[in-house]
Amino acid sequence: MNYEELLSIQEGLSPHREELPFGGFYRRQVNGKFRFVIDLRPELTDNLVFCESLKAEQAWSLRQHGKHQLHYDLHDDGNHLTEIELEPGNYQTLSALLNDNPAVVAHRGFVDHLVDALLENASRLNAEQIFYLCYSPQNIFVRKGDNSPLLLFHGSFYKNVSDKAALFQGSHDFIAPEVLAGQDYDQRSDVYSIGRLIAFLFNQSSIPMEYKRVVKKATSENPDKRYKSLDEMRSAIEKIRNFRRSVFMLLGAVIISVLAFFVYIELLPSTESIEFIEPAPQAETTESYDSQYGSGFDLTDNDTLDITDEMLNAKAEAIYRKRYEKAADEILSKVYNSKHMGSSEKTFMANSQSMAEELLKTQQQLAEETGLPESLAGRIGHEIVERLTEQKQKTLSRHGYIKAGQGNGDSDE
After folding, report:
1. Which one, of 353, 290, 305, 359, lies nearest residue 329 by Cα?
2. Are the beta carbons of 119 and 194 closer than 8 angstroms?
3. Can you state the angle between helices 345-370 and 374-399, rounded to 10 degrees?
4. Which residues 6+ apart lie within 8 Å of 298 measured at CB?
5. H/E run at residue 348
6. Helix crossing, 110-126 with 187-201: angle to 10°?
7. How far is 332 from 262, CA to CA, in rounded Å?
8. Alpha-carbon distances of 159 from 156, 163, 228, 338, rounded to whole Å
9. Contact 259, 387 (CB under 8 A)
10. Predicted pLDDT of residue 174
11. Which of 132, 153, 149, 160 is nearest to 23 (CA)?
12. Helix (H) or strand (E) segment spanning residue 289
């Protein structure tokens, strides 16, 4: 018995069929070989507009050779379209993958790879005014092996089908409200749909930091409150990823420093008790900004002064720098102090993670209050955190430790 015969027996005993927006998806034998087909829903094929739209998309897809495009042939019974036959391949729907292996979401890089590929491909199509509109797990295929996404039905080809709710049956949760309402759509509609897909992927677990805030903005009911484009959405995700990466690198450096410190202490011949001197906080001033624009200038003041946008932006940046540096210094001091350095490694790690989250929250809050763009605020915040961390590490290295009772003799010098 060969492989094809074995598959035939298995399909006959337990045929697998999935309901997709446009019809039932299953595998059957065609000319002695197994092929994937979709039985189109009769209520769709009875609609002449839908049939013409399907033919137009097929003609377009034949010219597409991207790695994320699926191709298909149309079949009819002489009067109506009945089904489509998909190109040969080893793939399945994203819905089937998640049902068979829910833990795949937790695999390293799975969600990042899927989301990045969808955003990159959608951005390219949007530039040609082609929109997918329905990124539901039932409307996305993935290759077996690398889980690379494959797309089939692009919603913008069916813009003339009036009843969008009937068109995308079973996938309404992943479609922007304006699309279901039959209103105009644009890139923000794809932003909404991909945002809903990301939220769905983390239904059974907590959503990571780099996606949580992005999903909230992307899935706003009001299109004006979403990201204006998929490129802007990608940039927001990447920015938070970079910040998170920087924080982990900082934590790694701190952990190495602490371990080296403990090793050094263990190697000391003396067993006398030691204590740390708490270094005085060192805060840099922003006098150069105040001397140029005035220390009492208020961004919200509506008087008749002749103030340029450049002056306003410079002052907003100065205020942000001053306030964030002060806040970051207080947050970092919770880690770089004698009490914390003497704690257990487990306690140190927990406090360091809390510090990273508090730094990001403070950065976002101050950027909103001062009206500073998030990208600029993130870059300035990263510079300030790195500089303060380096200062505090140097201070610890410079002061070192002082044996008990020795500090009183040096205080008079």
Report:
1. 359
2. yes
3. 140
4. none
5. helix 345-370
6. 170
7. 20
8. 5, 10, 21, 66
9. no
10. 97
11. 153
12. helix 287-293
Q: What letter represents residue 40's amino acid?
A: L
> What pLDDT was estimated at residue 67?
92
The pair phi, psi for residue 128, each rounded to 5°, is -100, 10
User: Would you say 334 and 355 are in contact if contact means Cβ atoms under 8 Å apart?
Assistant: yes
In 3D, which of 74, 76, 72 has the Cα closest to residue 88? 72
Question: Residue 143's pLDDT is what?
Answer: 95
Quote the pTM value. Answer: 0.58
Cα–Cα distance for residue pair 405/257, rounded to 1 Å: 26
> In one letter, which amino acid is 390?
E
DSSP string, 69-129: B--EEEEE-SSSEEEEEEPS-SEEEHHHHHHH-GGGGGSTTHHHHHHHHHHHHHHHHHTTT
Paired strand residues for 73: 85
User: Which two tokens mark 47?
Assistant: 């609609």
- CA 129, CA 111: separation in Å to the nearest integer? 26
Dihedral (Cα; 222, 224, 227, 230), 10-degree rounding: 90
Cα separation of 65 and 70, whole Å? 9
Q: Which of 131, 157, 162, 159 is nearest to 56 (CA)?
A: 157
408 class by beta-carbon count within 10 Å (0-12 exposed, 13-18 middle, 19+ buried): exposed
State the DSSP H helix or E strand holding residue 211, giving kind and residue range, or none if neither: helix 209-218
Side-chain-side CA neighbours of 194 within 13 Å: the count stands at: 31
Give mean pLDDT in consecutive 10-residue pieces for the chain, a chain of 413 residues.
Answer: 49 69 90 88 94 96 92 90 93 95 91 95 96 97 94 96 93 96 95 97 85 94 96 91 56 66 63 55 49 48 56 84 89 74 62 80 86 84 86 68 38 38
Dist. CA 378–CA 367, nearest whole Å: 9
Q: Which two tokens stand for residue 257?
A: 């420093």
CA distance 215 to 233: 9
Where do we find the tokens 């998170």?
244
Q: What residue ranges in 317-386 does DSSP mark as E strands?
A: none
Locate 132 and state its tokens. 């997918």
Picking from 31, 56, 54, the residue whose alpha carbon sits closest to that of residue 41 is 54
pLDDT value at residue 13:
42
